[in-house]
Automatic annotation (TrEMBL), chain B:
Electron transport among keywords: no
Protein name, UniProt field: ABC transporter substrate-binding protein
Keywords of this entry: Amino-acid transport, Signal, Transport
Gene source species: Neoaquamicrobium sediminum
Signal peptide location: 1-22
UniProt keyword Isomerase, yes or no: no
Domain Leucine-binding protein positions: 26-372
Length: 335, 417
């Protein structure tokens, strides 16, 4: 840290000023002149927080995707189907028992089991054959999509958030000042804040598990050099199954999150597969931090774009992807 | 070598009967409906409407059996053209019934000009320009367009509800513009004011930031989105604690949205809207149609959606024209085109006839969303206007002065009295 400051004094100042300006923009009430140019502060804050929560959702989907790719070099194009299946299962469970939190456990377990079956029955047989794996995963995603269409139809399903998380909550952040000087605080959907906090905790736990535990060490070693790890006596197939199950389970849980603040419907699988592809391309294949950074960037771009540049919001994410591919093809944090 | 020979023979064996079938005693229809994306559910209900109409004719015209092939789309124009081309060239259908979504319709209007000897009968797509600007002579639309669907809603909310200041959120493509225009022209003429307009790309998914950007001091917000977009929007609107009055664009309060699982749709109760049908209309024809739909599709929606009705009417128009020519299509289908232009019919939702652009003149309903005894939401009948034409009752000069629908057209201030 101090080394960076000594080596790049000018960059340090610029970054410090930018961070300070950002903190000021979030915390302080905006002067009327600025509101006239940029729009109400409430809009900015909402777009910012929505972008971060959307990023949290993308992170949940993409982190499993990127782990699986990093370790097994397997581009699992059925990942979106796992997301959608998790959403449907979560809906069914929440509807039957009324337990939103319980649905997460059930979805995680069932989709993780499906992941184990996929890895054990299908992918184990075609290790190292990239093209074959890609085609097979596309095939599986089509079959799963049709099976789900058969079971759940093309209705939209909305997973109800529990009562203690329904409606908005007030955050201790100033959203604006009314004409009579009264301060308005930011109101934000409670369920989104819960999901954001949960994603951060989950991300931190994943980081700890990867960097502080023995199994995490094995996974990191596997990402770096799979063959050497296998040669040193580790039963790498078990690690594969474990990672695949965990990644699939995460996608399943993300399905519930998506179903709670958007909806579960046929076709969402492709949307989220595309989103996670973009996220890992931007963040760097196989890197958890990269997935978090990519998800945050894409979420923010979508939400800020939808407010400040609605015409271009659709291309914005792909523009980011194109820029990353042009200047840093391995992804922002890829190696 | 031997394998190659066998496979060639096998391929020929498969292809041969298909080629023979195309000419004999069958009429082949290509049906287009979205099977993925935002409008999947509307697409499925559209297919139900189509099947219902076929059933009315027992699947044949003058002893000729009617076959049909589905061209699945995702509501994007390029996919629509690809599927239409496949239906015409590969499946060799006689004519196409489709598509569902506004911009698909525009793309197929242009494609229709490249196949003058074939016919496209629009199923549910509602962009204005499809039949108003540079129309194709072999493209027919047996239902009013999106602007016609909005007719009468604006003055209704101003006069009956007293909502004069609104913000609008609508889908950022041809149908969104057209449907909004129908509402806005009438609304502004009645003295309403549009404070701010938001446009959302089709299939956005996350609307929370737009919801936060809505102005505080409006009487109501107009929502012109549909399919899963509508459901996602309502869901997030509820989570953000929104409680402003809502004015519904036509596809916002359709059965495909009102039957979604979850409580977000409850925000729609009391929402005025307009379109080509009212779910509980007491008319005899309508009730008979609803009953036939319910009997044919026990797994379908509680009552047919707007999309089912439009697909049904479009198919009925096509089949009635086929009946008029005894199912004998000329090589260039000129007799079929003439017969289609001459079709006049009493549909379940009012009388339909075509204008010189082969665009329907029909009835428009004003409705409000209410909750039934069983907790199901539906649109209740409020008012009905007959013979609404594409120029919304204006002369061509007056109508053209407003301009073609876009993000900024119509200009509300210019229309205020």
């Amino acid at each position: 840290m101090s080394g960076f400051v000594q080596r790049n004094p000018i960059w340090t100042v610029i970054i410090a000023v930018l961070v300070a300006a950002f903190v000021w923009a979030v915390v302080a009430p905006w002067p009327p002149g600025m509101e006239a140019v940029v729009g109400r502060k409430q809009i900015f804050l909402n777009a910012l927080f929505n972008g971060i929560t959307l990023g949290a959702l993308y992170f949940l989907v993409a982190s499993g995707f990127t782990l699986i790719f990093g370790l097994m070099k397997n581009v699992n194009l059925a990942h979106g189907s796992l997301y959608l299946l998790g959403g449907y299962i979560g809906y069914e469970f929440a509807e039957a028992t009324g337990s939103w939190l319980g649905a997460f456990v059930v979805s995680f377990v069932i989709v993780a089991l499906l992941g184990i079956v996929l890895q054990y029955v299908v992918f184990r047989r075609m290790e190292g054959e990239d093209l074959r794996q890609t085609l097979v995963t596309i095939g599986i995603s089509i079959v799963l999509a049709d099976l789900m269409l058969w079971r759940w139809g093309s209705h939209s399903y909305q997973i109800l958030s529990p009562d203690f998380l329904s409606g908005p909550t007030t955050l201790p952040l100033i959203a604006g000042v009314r004409g009579d000087g009264e301060i308005v605080y930011l109101r934000f959907p409670a369920v989104r804040i819960a999901i954001l906090v949960a994603s951060i905790v989950l991300g931190a736990l994943m980081w700890l598990a990867l960097n502080r535990t023995r199994i995490g060490m094995l996974i990191r070693a596997g990402v770096d050099d799979r063959d050497m790890l296998a040669a040193s006596g580790v039963r790498i197939q078990y690690v594969f199954v474990l990672v695949f199950a965990f990644g699939a389970g995460l996608a399943g849980m993300a399905g519930i999150v998506g179903g709670t603040f958007q909806s579960v419907a046929a076709g969402e699988d492709m949307r989220f597969l595309l989103a996670s592809l973009v996220v890992v391309i931007v963040g760097g294949m196989g890197s958890i931090f990269g997935a978090a950074l990519g998800a945050l960037l894409i979420g923010l771009a979508e939400q800020l774009g939808s407010v400040y540049a609605p015409t271009y919001s659709v291309v914005l994410t792909f523009l980011i992807m194109a820029l990353v591919l042009a200047f840093r093809p391995q992804g922002l944090l890829g190696r | 070598m031997k394998l190659k020979l066998i496979s060639t023979v096998a391929a020929l064996a498969i292809l041969a009967p298909a080629a023979a079938l195309a000419q004999d005693d069958t009429i082949k229809i290509g049906l287009m409906a979205p099977q993925e994306g935002v409008f999947t559910e509307p697409g499925n209900d559209g297919i139900r409407g189509f099947e219902l109409a076929l059933k009315k004719f027992n699947g044949e015209i003058n002893g000729k059996k009617i076959e049909w092939v589905l061209g699945p789309t995702d509501a994007t124009p390029d996919r629509a053209v690809r599927e239409a081309r496949k239906l015409i060239e590969q499946d060799q259908v006689d004519f196409i019934i489709g598509p569902l979504s506004g911009s698909e319709g525009l793309a197929l209007r242009d494609y229709a000009k490249t196949i003058p000897g074939k016919t496209i009968i629009n199923a549910a797509s509602g962009a204005l320009e499809t039949t108003y600007v540079d129309p194709a002579p072999n493209f027919f639309r047996f239902h009013p367009d999106g602007a016609q669907w909005g007719y009468g809603l604006g003055s209704y909310v101003v006069n009956e509800k007293g909502w004069k200041k609104v913000a609008t959120i609508a889908a950022d493509y041809s149908f969104g513009y057209t449907n909004f225009m129908g509402f806005a022209v009438d609304f502004c003429k009645a003295g309403g004011e549009i404070v701010e307009r938001f446009w959302l790309p089709l299939g956005s998914g996350d609307f929370a930031s737009i919801i936060a950007a809505l102005p505080y001091d409006v009487d109501a917000i107009y929502l012109g989105v549909g399919g899963t977009d509508a459901i996602n929007f309502l869901n997030q609107y509820e989570q953000a604690g929104g409680d402003t009055n809502i004015i519904g664009g036509t596809i916002m309060v359709d059965q495909t949205v009102l039957t979604a699982r979850g409580r977000a749709k409850e925000a729609l109760i009391g929402t005025p809207s307009s379109g080509v049908q009212a779910d509980d209309w007491q008319d005899e024809n309508w009730q008979a149609y609803v009953k036939a739909y319910q009997e044919a599709f026990p797994d379908g929606l509680p009552t047919p959606s707007l999309f089912a009705t439009n697909y049904y009417n479009s198919t009925m128009g096509a089949l009635m024209a086929l009946e008029a020519i005894d199912g004998e299509l000329d090589d260039d289908q000129a007799n079929f085109h003439a017969a289609l232009s001459a079709v006049e019919m009493d549909t379940p939702n009012g009388h339909i006839k075509l204008d010189e652009n082969r665009q329907a003149i029909g009835s428009v309903f004003i409705t409000e969303v209410v909750e039934g005894d069983d907790g199901e939401l539906y649109n209740t009948f409020k008012a009905k206007v007959d013979n609404v034409d594409q120029k919304l009752g204006m002369t061509k000069e007056e109508f053209d002065a407003i301009g073609l629908p876009s993000r900024d057209t119509p200009d509300c201030a210019a229309l205020n009295p």
